[in-house]
Amino acid sequence: MRSAVVVGVDGCKAGWITVRRDPGASPSISVFASFAELLDALPTDAIVAVDMPIGLPDFSQRGGRGPEAMVRSLLGQRQSSVFSIPSRAALYADISDFTTVEAWYEAHRRASDVAKTTSDPPRGVSIQAFGIFAKIREIDALLIARPELRTRVYESHPEVAFCRLNSEKAMTLPKKIKGAVNPAGMEERKALLCRHGYVRTFLDQKPPTGAAADDFLDAAVMMLIAGRLACGEARPFPDPPLADRFGIPVAIWA
């Protein structure tokens, strides 16, 4: 069993929210503006599980990459939380900093056009997926430039994580309904997290500025997956992982 700093990460409005646990210590929360800044704040052997796609396809098949297609079947009514990742070319079709809403939508249209030419069947990009493109590129660039991070930074997915921690049963209630946090769904997840070692007062605290309550819970469950990774208990979907053309592993771990 490996004793290491374990960190769960989720994207948030302010950048990235982390839930970190050092050996023998209670968890702590932080927010970082960039993923590089987040990594710089950690020991070099820390294990990170992040709710963000890692490893990008050159051509997108029906259902997305292999990991998405595999985990959807586990999640029942929660499978809509797993959306397909378009091609690398679509992800990098427009890397501008958008100053207007019109520019943002125009960039979304360009990305969709590229995605349609690099997928079978041709498929555009959802607004939800496009909204996290910059964060996907942020991690992608780091893993290309720093290959040593590939054995420390792992992709996971909150609903897959909750399912694995719940004896392979998906959560029965949605975390959000029509974009708003669903208190009953949050309560269901908090109860499960408490069964895996969290203290309720920690989970009930107000998240830091720039992070939402569901971002905080997602980072919290990601931390448990980082712990499973450190102990060799996590499982990749698929097993063994695939790899993109840069050699970056492609798998959802839980």
Automatic annotation (TrEMBL):
Pfam families: DUF429. It comes from the Bacteria. This is DUF429 domain-containing protein. It comes from Mesorhizobium caraganae.
